[in-house]
Amino acid sequence: MSRPFLPPLILAVAAAAGFSVRADEPTEPPLLHEAVGNWTAGKEDLAFTQRGRTLDDDGKLKEERVERYDPSLPDAQRWHLIEVNGKPPTDAQRESIEHRRNRKPRKKANKPPEELLDFSKARVATETAKDVTFEVPLRSESARMVQTEKLILLITVGRETRMIERVTAGLRDTMRVALGLAKITDVDFDLTLDGIDEGEKSTKGHPKAPPKPQEEDQVTGTARVALTKFGERMEYEWSDFKRVNAYHAPAKPGAAAADGK
């Protein structure tokens, strides 16, 4: 999935499902390669709303928080607390939670896709006259202490648009992470990439215009993960995605002059 949603989201990617590729075909599907390039040429990060729920052993709700994450904002403002247990947060809750969230160093989640996903092992899962869906495995070295073979990632690419149009992910089986201290029991991503200009699509008798980078498109759908940790069930849901440019702190006065020495 191009520059990923993480760290807050969990990478959901695939292992191959047995579809074969002819020996004369390239190891990395050209259509997938082009679509990933079109996506990464656009805005580099994602803002989203996160709903987190913690339940006890009896399934009773212990806490529910709704937060907004926007990497286009300065570090001290990235996380914004919206609700706690269905109510507006108090000043004390906002100060405590937002301070704890925003004081952590900004993680660089916008790594090149090829550092996370092994496109050379992508396989065609399904195809129609309009699109092709690829299964793409996660590079095992990119996710330590995660059983990557139990995750499934499907990327759908439009034949005419040459764009990534949908990303879905799921879990084959319960997955142990963090040396078995936690178990991911459910992964459900279903994201649609909107914003393809109908005027760019080919029409009969007219050549198709070259595709533009997926810069202004929106990402619709939801992503959900459920896990257990130390006996507690934790559920996370992400929605209201928006592509943004990551915040970069302005250069300090005199920095340019110093660089020129």
Sheet with most strands: 11 strands, antiparallel
**Contiguous runs where pLDDT drops below 50 for at least 5 residues:** 1-26, 195-207
Secondary-structure-derived class: mainly beta
Percentage of β-strand residues? 25-35%
Helix tally equals 3
Counting structural domains, the number is 1
The share of residues in helices is: 10-25%
Total beta strands: 11
Instruction: Provide mean pLDDT, rounded.
Output: 76
How large is the radius of gyration?
A: 21 Å
The 3D shape can be described as globular
Order of helices and strands: HEEEHEEEEEEEEH
Question: How far do the termini sit from each other?
Answer: 40 Å
Gist of the model:
With 261 residues, this protein is mainly β. It is built from 3 helices and 11 strands; from the N terminus they run αβββαββββββββα.
State the main characteristics.
261 residues, mainly beta, 11-stranded antiparallel beta sheet, 3 helices, 11% helix, disordered N terminus
Structure description:
By secondary structure, the protein is mainly beta. The chain is 11% helix and 35% strand. The protein starts with 29 loop residues before the first helix and ends with a helix. A hairpin with a 5-residue loop joins strand 1 and strand 2 (61-69). It is built from three helices and eleven strands. Mean pLDDT is 76; it is low at 1-26 and 195-207. Strands 1, 2, 3, 4, 5, 6, 7, 8, 9, 10 and 11 form an eleven-stranded antiparallel sheet that branches. It has one domain.
